[in-house]
Amino acid sequence: MANEDKVLEALLKEERAFPPPAYFVEEALVKDTSLYEEAKKDREAFWARQAENIDWFQKWDKVLDTSNAPFFKWFVNGKLNVSYNCIDRHLKTWRRTKAAIVWEGEPGDDRVLTYQDLYREVTKCANVLKELGVRRGDRVTIYLPMIPELPIAMLACARIGAPHSVVFGGFSSESLRDRINDCQAKLVITADGGWRRGGIVPLKKNCDDALAECPSVEKVLVVKRTCQDVNIVQGRDFWWHEMMARAPIGCEPEHMDAEDMLYILYTSGTTGKPKGVVHTTGGYLVGVSATHRMIFDIKDDDIYWCTADIGWVTGHSYIVYGPLANGCTTVMYEGSPDWPERDRFWAIVEKYRVNILYTAPTAIRAFMKWGTEWPARRDLSSLRLLGTVGEPINPEAWMWYYKYIGNERCPIVDTWWQTETGMILISPLPGVTTLKPGSATIPFPGVEAAVVDNTGKDVPLGSGGYLVLKSPWPAMLRTIYGDPDRYVAQYWSRFENMYFTGDGARWDEDGYFWIMGRVDDVINVSGHRLGTMEIESALVDHPAVAEAAVIGKAHEVKGQAVSAFVTLKEGIQGTPQLIEELKAHVVRKIGALARPEDIFFTAELPKTRSGKIMRRLLRDIAEGRVLGDTTTLADPAVVAKIKEQYESQE
Ligand code: 6R9
């Protein structure tokens, strides 16, 4: 039995079950299964009811338009503004003075913005954007650290109807350049730098390098954060604080159509080129606010903290848009969990009395490795609910989180979703669902997920296959920016009338979903999605490299680590220095998140007769498994030789 299957066997034998604790049910927003039944009876009516929680300038005519599937439309002809929903409507209530964003910088500085403060900052920023020539429909690229100016800039874009494209601060200048060019951004918002483990991430410098090859960009708005000297190009670059000081407060929100684009977010796929996932206004806001409220059981006195970076979809939906639409207090932290010490997260929970904590399995595994003394030092008694996202959580990590962070008192919501889905689709409701460690449990009301075989037929309960979605949901992506054909090919062609997630899954006898990870050429390193082809192209770009194959190799903390098999050009020696040089090259091309953990030089790569590299076999080698089926190989001897060399080097 292959290793993965053994792990799976163990998972499916996982018999521990945790019904919602009585104290939690008593206070829970959702206490029974009636929502599931309501949604099953009439899915569209269920979503329409959720949409009532949003303020519309004009109500929709039709909940769902399927006439041009898979280009679905939600809340047809509805008019609204996301920034209005996240800010203005709360000003009419006592929430005007409630903390909207509680922010902590890595060096220990902090800032609290009430909803009134957020209104002031966002409307001023919207006026700055207009002054810099941004109009409704123009794209704005945002390349900022985790500072309050990041959500302020996003909301300002939403206010004037300019779609934003947030690029994670860990991406290199080349990655930034490609993302700017793909969406033809007119303005870039960046900072001098961001803090990371006491060092400065040189964002402005990266931005300058990128802009040498970005003809669409007219102006750059620069936030001062780290205060080192940076290059300022006269006429192109403008300081945020100078522009904001002059800008008036107050800016009418644009009346946007429900289907107008809210943002583009780039994510890795199966090709070398990241794709721009397009999210729109109405359905997205309905989806993220409903899931945020019910899955995290949001009450008005909660202090909610999602530890993701806003550069990823989790931050978009569950730090910014979902929580603010719900009038919640959302915590933001700029830096690393081990700075200055390994108890930083727990210090933040203690300091702000965080009630709800949403983090990633990779972080939990790192905490496990660091030991229980770090959380034990701090008062975590404010916590009442925990969440995870980004990758499958192994039952040991789940149990550790449950015991040492939640003190066996807090339910854990394991939430499955994707950049493309925009909102959580499979997750427990903490006052209703019995939890099983390692399972994301069941689809959210109004979501139709299934596990199917090769032909698209449901597999029987108790077995595995491909995870699909059988009907549209409001926050779904609408297309790939500039490439509708790729949208259809990537998601709607593998199975008829179903959205293909790219994940493998099983459902157990109770109908619980157990997500097994990607079945395509996407790997998941510390919860970050990377395309193997992207990293291969970066390696092949180096003059010494002839060919490269990249796989995700099982890793204790990261889930998967990047492992590369490289063949060098004739006459070039594979030295340890070259390994370091190639790693640095990948970091330069993509960013530190893609740095290979190990690079192995080989004379040849295993290929099929049609010339396709068989990464599956390389993964068997790297993870020390018996080789899978090798009959389709052009030359089976190649793989045997690589295996022998690899094992002698380990
Ligand atoms: C939100 C986000 C999506 C991929 C997805 C799957 C994996 C996410 C998961 C999970 C098991 C969970 N994934 N959540 N796997 N259990 N709770 O992470 O989006 O970066 O696009 O990644 O992450 O493989 O397909 P994204």
Task: Please provide a written account of the structure.
- With about 650 residues, the protein is an alpha/beta fold.
- About 35% of the residues lie in helices and about 20% in strands.
- The protein contains 21 helices and 30 strands.
- The strands form eight sheets. An eight-stranded mixed beta sheet has the order 12-11-8-6-7-14-15-23, sandwiched between helices. A seven-stranded mixed beta sheet has the order 5-4-17-16-18-19-20, with helices on both faces.
- A hairpin with a 2-residue loop joins β9 (about 195) and β10 (about 200).
- The longest helix is centred in the N-terminal third of the chain and has 17 residues, at about 115-130.
- The protein is globular.
- The model has no long low-confidence stretch (mean pLDDT about 95).
- The protein binds ligand 6R9.
- Ligand 6R9 binds next to α12, β24 and β25.
Morphology: globular
Q: For the largest beta sheet, what order do the strands appear in spatially?
A: 12-11-8-6-7-14-15-23
The major β-sheet equals: 8 strands, mixed
Number of helices: 21
Number of strands: 30
Binding site for Mg(2+): 540, 542, 545
Domain Acetyl-coenzyme A synthetase N-terminal: 34-86
Family: Belongs to the ATP-dependent AMP-binding enzyme family.
Catalytic activity: acetate + ATP + CoA = acetyl-CoA + AMP + diphosphate
